[in-house]
Amino acid sequence: MSADLVTSPDPSHPANLIPSLCAKFWHLGWVTGTGGGCSIRDDDLVYIAPSGVQKELMKASDLYVLSLAAQQSASLSRRQRVYLRAPESGLKPSQCTPLFLAAFTKRRAGCCIHTHSQWAVLVTLLLEAGSGEKEFRINNIEQIKGFGRGFEKSGNLGYHDTLVIPVIENTAHEEDLTEFLEEAMDRYPDTYAVLVRRHGVYVWGENVHKAKTQCESLDYLFQLAVEMKKLGLPWITQIEPVVPTRTE
Amino acid sequence: MSADLVTSPDPSHPANLIPSLCAKFWHLGWVTGTGGGCSIRDDDLVYIAPSGVQKELMKASDLYVLSLAAQQSASLSRRQRVYLRAPESGLKPSQCTPLFLAAFTKRRAGCCIHTHSQWAVLVTLLLEAGSGEKEFRINNIEQIKGFGRGFEKSGNLGYHDTLVIPVIENTAHEEDLTEFLEEAMDRYPDTYAVLVRRHGVYVWGENVHKAKTQCESLDYLFQLAVEMKKLGLPWITQIEPVVPTRTE
Amino acid sequence: MSADLVTSPDPSHPANLIPSLCAKFWHLGWVTGTGGGCSIRDDDLVYIAPSGVQKELMKASDLYVLSLAAQQSASLSRRQRVYLRAPESGLKPSQCTPLFLAAFTKRRAGCCIHTHSQWAVLVTLLLEAGSGEKEFRINNIEQIKGFGRGFEKSGNLGYHDTLVIPVIENTAHEEDLTEFLEEAMDRYPDTYAVLVRRHGVYVWGENVHKAKTQCESLDYLFQLAVEMKKLGLPWITQIEPVVPTRTE
Amino acid sequence: MSADLVTSPDPSHPANLIPSLCAKFWHLGWVTGTGGGCSIRDDDLVYIAPSGVQKELMKASDLYVLSLAAQQSASLSRRQRVYLRAPESGLKPSQCTPLFLAAFTKRRAGCCIHTHSQWAVLVTLLLEAGSGEKEFRINNIEQIKGFGRGFEKSGNLGYHDTLVIPVIENTAHEEDLTEFLEEAMDRYPDTYAVLVRRHGVYVWGENVHKAKTQCESLDYLFQLAVEMKKLGLPWITQIEPVVPTRTE
Fold first, then answer.
1. CA of D156: which chain C residue's CA is closest?
2. What are the pLDDT digits (tens) for D58-80?
3. What is the pTM for the complete model shown?
4. Residues of B within an 8 Å Cβ radius of A
5. Fewer CB within 10 Å, N or C, chain B?
6. Cβ separation of D146 and C200 shorter than 8 Å?
7. Can you give the pLDDT at residue D89?
8. Measured between beta carbons, which residues in chain C are less than 8 angstroms from residue A129?
């Protein structure tokens, strides 16, 4: 029965999607050397990539599955989890688990992705070197339209809107990031991502499609921002909107 | 019948080509996070990638198809379209549609590609930082030969010719770019591409082969130009032509 | 019988793993133009990629195999080897052989990888230009957790730990690196890698999984370090640990 | 019969190798937008990729084949060729043909590769900006060992040897490069490559293996050289050889 949870002929089943997504992320340089991870929530079931696996070689049978409701009702320390199924391969649960759960419980996200993208790390380093800033801000770039306006808000950001991604400081133990991630979610109710200084980024979305495309758009903006810095170009600008003359 | 429009065993059929091209473009970083797009015109039929799809996962059944003649005869606002077929997946039409149509109607193009290439965006930012220039100009690079001399002109540009790509300012709504794109086409009758500041580039050609190879050559030149800027190398130079001594 | 040593239907057999790993390394730019190599130890048997082969095209039948015990007991010069099996293709043994053996004998490694990664080379050049430093040092980057604490030590490095990789000078003949590699192993008993100035890096691990993921993490850090240098960011910083307020 | 020249089930047949190599080169960014090319000589038969084809889509049936002896005996202008077989697809012969033939006739090469690699172009631009230098020189980098010592010489370059690649100025018409390429071959009898300013590089070797691996090693060195320039590191250095203390 527990095997059933990760056995499906459907390539879009979470147990098949996580390995195919992680292989794609490995090729993008987001989950190098077993870093980073991915989790999908299907109603009450949460599928999580395990710790310490080569992401391009992951199999459905490597996944952990837990019940969100059971997890929340159980009066457990944040370090304790009750899993509906664990891999026989002996792989450990991901240290990202409480952070993924934060996105599912506080934002009702359907998918959460954690990358160690070098562009994300470099952006946090550039902000730190600036004045220890706690926000990545960029505006007037078309790709910003790739982000939703916010939790329970319809529509996407506009070209002239400023995308703001909070930055939290890294902790020695990944689970200890949870309270700071949750604080950032509270302070930035509309954000779909949180940068972790010198570590990487957490990105989520209503569903796999939105989490993945928002993660791609964000990595695009991080890389662009690093190249802009090399070329002495500012991340924030004032631009007069261009108004079409045609009326229709 | 509408299904027939996108059902063919021929890999070179537009309905099969657009998904395979978009998957290739995704790997090149041109259509990250559902950005960018592609359209092919087969005589009167126009095949268009939909909005908001993961480009590496697109299927023929996701495509929109419209009749160019019907579209032009219909007295419709530019925002209204009559489609011969729409995807059942509920995907929205691409906001790039009127821009693709401009290439088909004003240039009789057979294919138009829109990328969010970071190199294209960086080139527009470097020009803006320079003096708000409205043209990207580069000469004396072999790859310039990859471009036709112009609309209804035979032959390609030469090594010593200056490639000139107009830059238009971005608008809040992509459709609003149309009039500015069309103006740029009028002012630059021989260009095969228009850069959009802080957004990306539109590239077209007589057929898929020419649109795709011109788009590749242009992205090559944009990346080269950005690297040249990092290294303090000018984009425009005066070079004495080298004349062969042999007579034949 | 000698054929049997490299004939197996199991993709995780060393004779099948080395070619698939080397093809992956080629795509990562680690073993360009026949540079670099890889060796796996299975108990007493050592499988070694040959010299001068295109790494993305290697076949199991191209491999050399030797017995570690026989090799050690034989009173041979370091240049002489007794192979249990050699390729019929006439490919020469790898000049890296004595260096791979050093990792197997001095560290009981299960796998050793040698790359010519440009990031590794650039890091050694930056250190040389600094003050001829003999160590690459970086701290306070999450990816550092990708490394074990050291030979026969359990657990991994922590986020605040400083990763130290010794650098040895390159020699005209690769075999001559062996004594310097072994000296570095003696001086840095806990290191899993040694950089070779203007050449590349040797990385090992208890097994293939650990050697490969440590090599990935190290290349990630080398590339990050080069980008940090371009952006004027220091590799070593003093950071106050962030302590979680929650008690559990 | 002419079809037979390019019809073989053997993947290592030149007619099958050229398409598979060109697809690989396209993914390396060497033959973007139909630029660059490749030719293989099998005894008297010369197989040549045609002009204007998308390199990742090339087929064996697209190739031209000519007889080297017939070509040389025929008293033809360098622009005239007698082909044993031409593609039915109507693709034009490559303008690189006389340059490939120069490598086959003057060096008895078995394969010649022409890339538009951006790293090659940037290296020629950096030399031009320096003082219009006509040579790329680099030493004390391990990858230099990837090159043969020279035409009809045995062995490879050593770590401390200086790799010298001549640079010729680009001409308006690619065929016109031939006399300058041949002059460079005469002045640099041991070189396996010639850089073309603002254009790319020609690389050859005794056989496909050597041409391809030397081209990879050279591109590796060009990219490394560009990165070194960004980081203020010199291409030429004086280094005291490291001598092993062990005697064997």
1. C52
2. 999 999 999 999 988 876 666 67
3. 0.97
4. 29, 32-35, 54, 77-79, 116, 118, 121-122, 125-126, 129, 169-172, 176, 179-180, 196, 198-200, 226, 229-230
5. N
6. no
7. 84
8. 231-233
* In the predicted structure, residue A124 carries a pLDDT above the cut 60: yes
- pLDDT average, residue stretch B196-207: 98
- Please tell me the number of Cα atoms within 13 Å of A80 on its side-chain side: 8
* From C133, C142, C182, C240, the catalytic residue: C142
Partner residue opposite D160 with nearest CB, options C129, C172, C196: C172
Q: Could you tell me which of A208, A194, A202 has the C-alpha nearest to residue A19? A: A208
Distance from CA of C1 to the nearest CA of D (A): 29
* β-bridge mates for residue C181, sequence order: none
Long-range contact list for A56-59, CB < 8 A, 24+ apart? A56/A22, A56/A23, A56/A26, A56/A27, A57/A23, A58/A18, A58/A19, A58/A22, A58/A23, A59/A19
C197 with C170: CB under 8 angstroms? Answer: yes
Residue among A34, A226, A229 minimizing CB distance to C213 = A34
Query: What gap in Å lies between CA B133 and CA A51, rounded to an integer?
Result: 51
Predicted confidence band of residue B236 (pLDDT cuts 50, 70, 90): very high
Domains plus CATH for chain C?
Answer: 2-230 (3.40.225.10)
Read off the tokens for D25: 């080169």
CA distance D26 to C146: 34
For chain A, the average pLDDT equals 94
Contact C35, C56 (CB under 8 A): no
Q: Is C230 exposed, middle or buried (0-12, 13-18, 19+ CB in 10 A)?
A: middle
Kindly determine whether residue A226 and residue C224, on different chains, have CB atoms separated by under 8 Å. Answer: no
- Looking up tokens 């009028």 gives B186
Beta bridge partners of C165: C136
